[in-house]
Amino acid sequence: FTASLLLGTTLTISSNHWIMAWAGLEINTLAILPMISKSHHPRAIEAATKYFLTQATASALLLFSSMINAWQTGQWDITQLTNPTSCLILTSAIAMKLGLVPFHFWFPEVLQGTPLTTGLLLSTLMKFPPITLLYMTSPSLNPTVLTSMAILSTALGGWMGLNQTQIRKILAFSSISHLGWMTIIISYNPKLTLLNFYLYALMTTATFLTLHSTKASKLSTLMTTWTKAPALNAALLLTLLSLAGLPPLTGFLPKWLIIQELTKQDMA
Amino acid sequence: MAVAVVLLSGAPFHGGCCRHKVFLSLLGPLLSNSKLYSSYRRPGAEPKKKLSWQNADFSFKKSIDHLKTQLSLLTKETQDYLQGPGGHPLSQHVLEQTRVLWQFRSQEDLNKWVISSDVEIGGKSKVYIKLGRNNQAALLYGTLNTEVPRDGETKYSGYCSMRSRPAVGSFNRKKYYDWSNFNSLYLRVRGDGRPWMVNIYTDPYFSHQKDDLYSYFMFTRGGPYWEEIKIPFSKFFFSSRGRVQDNQHPVWLDKASFLTLGLTIGDKVDGPFQLEIDFIGLLNDRAHREEFAYETYDKN
């Protein structure tokens, strides 16, 4: 399944035809489903079903968008998306794939039902192909729609994560928030989006692997991990602060550059 | 299909006056007011006289009052949200080791529970609930009757149960609680020596899992003394539609949304029963390290 995930991801990021990109996304979706439902617990099955339904809908919308563009312009090239209707439908498809507001409701529930390692894949590897498609089509997409979704994602990701007691849900809302940061700058400086994504993936990987090794899935368990692995707990503290964007840690860098770029665009 | 073709092709021969009869015979079940499925009513079930929309009360004043109540609930929920998870500060959530969920001190506490028995399938058991002496406990009592109703399909009978109503917030939305900090159920009861079954229903999202239930036994001692029963959540076994499943898994309590707790008696012994319940709560028993009591299908 991991090999299929890598195949699907590689297929999508290296393609310039919409059908190949869609095929890669479908391979990714189908490959991750058995990993989500591996434990056969009803909650895991529920998470897998929710994931399948949302991702299948998003894939269908993506294909629909590419077909409208192909019908209107005769182009199947990903970078040649010019039809306004196609752009709008593609924006909603990518938002659903990524978990941007207002299509974010599935993400915390799915992440809560999965084991921590699969949750890591969902938060990092599964986000890579849609971010790549967004990167390639960003000049054609409506900046107002993207900015609105980004601001809502950043705000709601932060507020909804406030009273959570399950760590996976907190990380899901953190992911939604970071996706907001990535999306807001994509129309003006797409390279910052990629930088933000790479650093987010690195920090999230560190967080998930630490939580996996300490087997902490809720806050009360996290309170007692310092007795079992004090050094790892201290590293987790720094990683979480970095995710939060505290200077002088790494996570501050993309946020600083994004705000700087937005200031240049008279938006901040 | 062939019958329909024959019937329709035969219609012109019988003349135009009979054509509508042919259509009616084909479309009869769809056109009639009766439901498409069987209208058999189980004995004990009340005959349905009114349609569900006819029970709606369209009074404007009542709707305004209802809206005011819901808005005040929503305000309270927002204030609780600002305070912390479940309306309590985070420190309380992290440090608490016990929590009382239901205690029976007033009629309002009793109204949070629903009693039922095999009368709903045509049986003859009786169950009642009232406040005990000095309003210090709930008294669940009645008579169990294992006589099978004569409807030709029921094979077993004889159960009485008490189930908690699921918690709803403002505008009838589900309330989510996180009980994952606790690992045991704690009940202070005084029984009559009869065994009970404690059932937990976690309201799953998809309809395929709506019949899933987690159960365990509660053996009461009988006698004048109260007993405090601790049932770890790791002991609850999984069943679906009343059948214990081979593929067992522990109950997850992180999303106790519509979670309902039920106490059922069905020990196949005719006669009276009685159970006094002081309170039902949760406990984090640090000495209990077991994760799950039953074998799962995981590969080693």
From TrEMBL, chain A:
Report domain NADH:quinone oxidoreductase/Mrp antiporter transmembrane positions: 15-265
Keywords from the named record? Electron transport, Membrane, Mitochondrion, Mitochondrion inner membrane, NAD, Respiratory chain, Translocase, Transmembrane, Transmembrane helix, Transport, Ubiquinone
Q: Which reaction does it catalyse?
A: a ubiquinone + NADH + 5 H(+)(in) = a ubiquinol + NAD(+) + 4 H(+)(out)
Question: What main location does UniProt list?
Answer: mitochondrion
Q: What is its EC number?
A: 7.1.1.2
Source superkingdom: Eukaryota
User: Does the record bear Acetylation in its keywords?
Assistant: no
Entry-linked InterPro entries = Complex_I_Subunit_2 (IPR050175), NADH_UbQ_OxRdtase_chain2 (IPR003917), ND/Mrp_TM (IPR001750)
GO molecular function of the protein, one example? NADH dehydrogenase (ubiquinone) activity
What's an example Gene Ontology biological process for this entry?
Answer: mitochondrial electron transport, NADH to ubiquinone
For the protein in the UniProt heading, the enzyme class is translocase
List the membrane topology term(s): Multi-pass membrane protein
Residue ranges crossing the lipid bilayer per the database entry: 48-68, 88-107, 144-163, 194-211, 232-253
Q: Which family does the similarity line name?
A: Belongs to the complex I subunit 2 family.
Q: What is this protein called?
A: NADH-ubiquinone oxidoreductase chain 2
Q: Which organism is it from?
A: Hylia prasina
TrEMBL record, chain B:
Q: Name one GO molecular function term.
A: unfolded protein binding
Q: Which Pfam families match?
A: CIA30
Q: Name one GO biological process term.
A: mitochondrial respiratory chain complex I assembly
Q: Which GO terms describe its cellular component?
A: mitochondrion
As for subcellular location, the record says: Mitochondrion
List the keywords (alphabetical): Chaperone, Mitochondrion
Domain of life of the native organism: Eukaryota
Q: Which residues form a coiled coil?
A: none
Tell me where it mainly resides. Answer: mitochondrion
Where the record annotates domain NADH:ubiquinone oxidoreductase intermediate-associated protein, the positions are 102-277
* Quaternary context: Part of the mitochondrial complex I assembly/MCIA complex that comprises at least the core subunits TMEM126B, NDUFAF1, ECSIT and ACAD9 and complement subunits such as COA1 and TMEM186. Interacts with ECSIT. Interacts with ACAD9. At early stages of complex I assembly, it is found in intermediate subcomplexes that contain different subunits including NDUFB6, NDUFA6, NDUFA9, NDUFS3, NDUFS7, ND1, ND2 and ND3. Interacts with TMEM70 and TMEM242.
What is stated as this protein's family in its record?
Answer: Belongs to the CIA30 family.
What function does the entry list? As part of the MCIA complex, involved in the assembly of the mitochondrial complex I.
Protein name, entry field: Complex I intermediate-associated protein 30, mitochondrial
Q: Which species expresses this protein natively?
A: Hylia prasina (green hylia)
Q: What is the lineage of its organism?
A: Eukaryota, Metazoa, Chordata, Craniata, Vertebrata
